[in-house]
Amino acid sequence: MYLLLPVKNNHVAYLILSISTAILLTLAWQPFKILPLVFIGFVPLLMLEKKIRSEQRDSFMWVFVYTWLALLLWNIGTVYWIWNASEGGALAAFVINSLPMVLPFMLYHRKNVRSGRENYVLLISAWIAMELLQFHWDLAFPWLQLGNVFSYLPATVQWYEYTGVLGGSLWICAVNIQLFRLLQYWTQLTRQQNMNRVFNLVFFYLLTPLFLSGYILLNHEPHKDINTTYADIILVQPNLDPYNDKFGGMSGEEQLRKMLLLAESKIDSLTQFIILPETALQGGLEENNLSQQPLVHLLYSFLKVHPNVSILTGIDSYRLYNEQEPHPATARRVRDEPRFFDAYNAALFINNYDSPEVYHKSKLVPGVEKMPYPEVFGFIEKYAINLGGTGGSLGSDGSSKVFNNKHKLGLAPIICYESVFAEFTASYVQKGAKILCIITNDGWWGNTPGYKQHFDYGRLRAIENRRYIARAANTGISGFIDDQGEVMVRSEWWTESALRMRVPVLSKQTFYTEHGDWIAYLFLFILGFELISLWRGSFQKQQNQKY
């Protein structure tokens, strides 16, 4: 857009600063993993805002253009792998996901113009509020929450058990702002004053959170005493190509038999749980008569041989509604019939002693499993990313659910994208989940950073809730993660695997589990006051202009 407008020489400097932010933030993420760069990533953008504000009369437009460019390029550089599934869907994701990130900087700039000085409280509170929005609105995409960048070095953020991932976002914002202030006033202060500022930045803003994390690690109770209860779990990674085998190349029965054979290679009389990946049972299972479905019969045949085992598996399912039966808005009409049906990406929990239980995925992927705000974005439906199974908006439970075996050992059936939602994952633990089970596919993106980022994000969920994680992927990375976020056992990319581990069963709930994203709600409250102040300043200026 800005290329169509008159460009002066100083726009070269704007462009350099904008691209610098994009490069620094991208290099901080998986797969480059140069973590320190995230603490300086926003400094060029802050410099950019100040420079434009001092040089341009139409500064609002130029701040928007170059800030959006930086954040758009960061989105592309970090989640470019979406392109592997759909070019049109990827373009829509890059644009739509980067736009909300611009809003905090625009509010920050507007307040700076009004007051003549930088308002960092407004910037931080607006950014944290924006990240909270990414958890809850129809276009939710919390993949690039700043605090997620620590997922490949979980030892640095053990205090997430108190703050959650937004605590990491706050840390990054605070360090970037303090570094910008240091650079901004460096020539105006004495050497001693500058050294004091450097000491404060390094010790209080950078090292203190690291020391705190180390202290928590050193004092973390290892769960190795003789009274600890364990769950014996087998994970299955069948490695079915989602484009050629899973949704067309192999029958549902062939796929399931393959998975059960892999489980059979690890099973014995002590095994309690077998976990199969997302949509392991595919082809559309009718929930109205679930026990009579052929694939469910096959599971029951397996369980007769292994009567003490419970199976958690992903399923592709649907429910039929009678002609006069109320149905939700997501239900679709059966072709040439007056009846409706709802399709689901679901989890099935099955054993020999209870009726089958089903959970319908609640955090659906925008543009893939649901059409966000269809009255506004209906035109992009043709670009929706096709990830197999049933297309269109899926039905959901709307809230988490926990599966319990006969010993009341609760498993959380977290389906794929749901594992990126910190507070939603905590809701499973609030409902009694002792082990977090993530079932996913991850094969859609190919051998890209996508499946690695997704796996690592689960490590943060383990810290936030102090729960072990058992993760079964169709392909990608399957494995076990301990309650400190460390990987105990893992599979490799594009391999058939069956992994087994005795997982400690933990019951204590963390501060974050009980209180969720309290940091976000605190800053949302602060943002409200800042916006009122901004509105009052604009209103008073308008009144003064009248007289």
Describe this structure in words.
There is one protein chain. The protein has 547 residues and is an alpha/beta fold. The protein folds into two domains: 249 residues, no CATH class; 286 residues, Carbon-nitrogen hydrolase (Nitrilase/N-carbamoyl-D-aminoacid amidohydrolase, 4-Layer Sandwich). It has 15 helices and 14 strands. The strands form two sheets. Strands 1, 2, 3, 4, 5, 6, 7 and 14 form an eight-stranded mixed beta sheet that branches. The chain has a six-stranded mixed beta sheet with strand order 8-9-10-11-12-13, covered by helices on one side. Helix 5 runs antiparallel to helix 7. The longest helix has 29 residues. It is globular. The chain starts with 9 loop residues before the first helix and ends with a helix. The N terminus is likely disordered.
